[in-house]
Amino acid sequence: MTYEEARKEAEQILKGAEVPDAALDAWYLLEYAIQKIEKKETGRTWYLMNRKESILPGTLLYYQELVSRRKQRIPLQHLTGEQEFYGYPFYVNEHVLIPRQDTEVLVEEALKRKKEGMKVLDLCTGSGCILLSILKNLKQGTGVGIDISEQALEVARRNAKRLGLEAATTFVLSDLFEKAQGSYDMIVSNPPYIETEEIAQLMPEVRDHEPRLALDGMSDGLYYYRSIVSQCRDYLKEDGALLFEIGAGQGAAVSELLKEAGFVSVQVIKDLAGLDRVVAGKAGTKKGKQEKDV
Predict the structure, then answer these.
(1) In sequence order, what E strands does the chain have?
(2) 134-145: per-residue pLDDT in tens?
(3) How far is CA 31 from CA 106, 124, 125, 182, 256, in A?
(4) What is the tens place of the pLDDT at every residue in 166-202?
(5) pTM
(6) Number of Cβ atoms within 10 Å of the Cβ of 18
């Protein structure tokens, strides 16, 4: 069997299982199998030059195993252990939400508000992709990532090391602000925001293989926004920024939460598809607030 025949066979298997983007996934898994087994750097040019060559037995066996698992709707990123986000490679596994391109809007909005030496708090940090992408683009910035899952924090620490940000980051096991300390120039969060009853309707890759803790926003999807907004002023410096990723259609509700809590310059930012994706606001001055020690 040639590389091309193996790829086409895999594509048909995945299409038969109604896997989205079956052709792309068949290619990505073949590329990954070749890199893992044959230790070769591949790409479209390599494939075009070698597609008629016989695939090595070891590569074929590994490739078929990967395709079989993808057929079961295990996410591609769980098979390869990696997802690119904001131009950086992130390690991912079943303990963290797979970084989405839409979330890059949150990073972009955060960086519009950046300043040298900024201190950032990332709640529900997961893989750390938001915090680490921000810090990679700051001068002398530092950050704290908080998550309720120690397994998720292990992934975040691994990514911090991979990106050379170990010294700039601290990761804390905490239920939101429970063990938070200090004050911050910016708080960012992509909290769980899917309504509980909607989870059953999600794609199998998400519903069955990504952590429910990272998905379930309780009955109306707004539980964690309320919790964060009600406590965050004690951890934000005056004029500090609060930025959330939100689900489509949540812009009005989340922005109103910020306004009711005294935030100013509240904005709803849309993603490339024109859907509400980020809510951002500025803390302003809080009378009588005693800033915590940094």
Answers:
(1) 82-85, 88-91, 119-123, 142-147, 169-173, 184-189, 236-245, 264-270, 276-282
(2) 999 999 999 999
(3) 31, 32, 30, 45, 47
(4) 999 999 999 999 999 999 999 999 999 999 999 999 9
(5) 0.94
(6) 10
